[in-house]
Design a protein that fits this description.
homodimer, 178 residues, mainly alpha, 5 helices, elongated, cell membrane (chains A, B), CASPL-5 (chains A, B), membrane (chains A, B), CASP-like protein (chains A, B), transmembrane (chains A, B)
């Protein structure tokens, strides 16, 4: 078997191609905003803030138990808040022990979780937006209902969704690019 | 030139590595559901069908001009229908002339377009769902409004969104994995 090692020239070329293959994986690990980075932790904190704001403003409103969409917003914001809080803790742990969270099962789990929570939050925000627009513009009933409160809870939910999107896209991108 | 074909053995090994390198690109091209494939065309036709159904059912309802969310559903379903129709035409062209649509600017354009239309359709469906649930469950006004019609238009919009999602994810995946 060792006797055939004389013409080793073509074999030398293969590692050069291998390094080219591994390069994108290293690049992906560096992007701020992915799990286990400072950017990722910042995103989670902002999400948590907006989720808590949407939850509190809607839960404080008089109308929320009587309208399904408002109750749903409260539920979706709580779920989003809990998810972002859990992921923020994981990010803090990863930053403290300097561990990367870039392995396939973890990133898949984060991508699926982010996909579900972001869809639920967006659905709740849209349902509430539909109803607040109905009350405010179409029926002109803002004198009876506290429109400002409902609208600000809806806006908070939209902002929460908007800050969850980058987390989701980073995870999905990282999953696809390996 | 033909005289040097005697010791062709080491040269034969390099293409094997090259094929290994190129394999993911070829694999991505083969996934059914991506632009320029039969699966992609089928997805576009289903999207178009649901968008047309949502548009027609909602536009035929008596309530649609008076409620913003219902008008928005009509607009979003038209946009989705036009987009899916245009992409279906492009898919048919690509299939007829046997061209692949896997280059970066085209896939980016499709991914962004799908992302926007799918978000708008989902937002419209959620807003209408919020209002139909308000009318049906919370206020019990289904005797006055044609709930079945509104609910079926909403369901069609949700199905339309659901069939747009795979197109979006295939394009985004294909973009990330090159």
């Amino acid at each position: 078997m060792n006797g055939s090692h004389g013409s080793v020239h073509p074999v030398e070329e293969i590692p050069t191609t291998d390094v080219g293959d591994a390069a994108p994986v290293i690049r992906m690990k560096d992007i701020e905003g992915m799990p286990g980075t400072r950017g990722g932790l910042a995103l989670r904190c902002i999400q948590l803030g907006f989720a808590v704001a949407a939850f509190s403003v809607m839960a404080a409103s008089r109308d929320f138990p009587s309208v399904s969409a408002f109750s749903y917003l409260v539920a979706a914001a709580s779920l989003q808040g809990l998810w972002s809080f859990a992921l923020a803790i994981i990010d803090i742990y990863a930053l403290l022990v300097k561990r990367t969270l870039q392995n396939r099962p973890i990133v898949s789990f984060f991508a699926v979780g982010d996909g579900i929570t972001t869809t639920l939050t967006f659905a709740a925000a849209c349902a509430c937006a539909g109803i607040t627009v109905l009350i405010d513009n179409d029926l002109d009933l803002c004198s009876v209902n506290k429109c400002a409160q409902l609208q600000s809870a809806t806006a908070m939910a939209f902002l929460c969704w908007f800050t969850t999107l980058p987390s989701f896209f980073f995870n999905y991108w990282s999953l696809a690019s390996r």
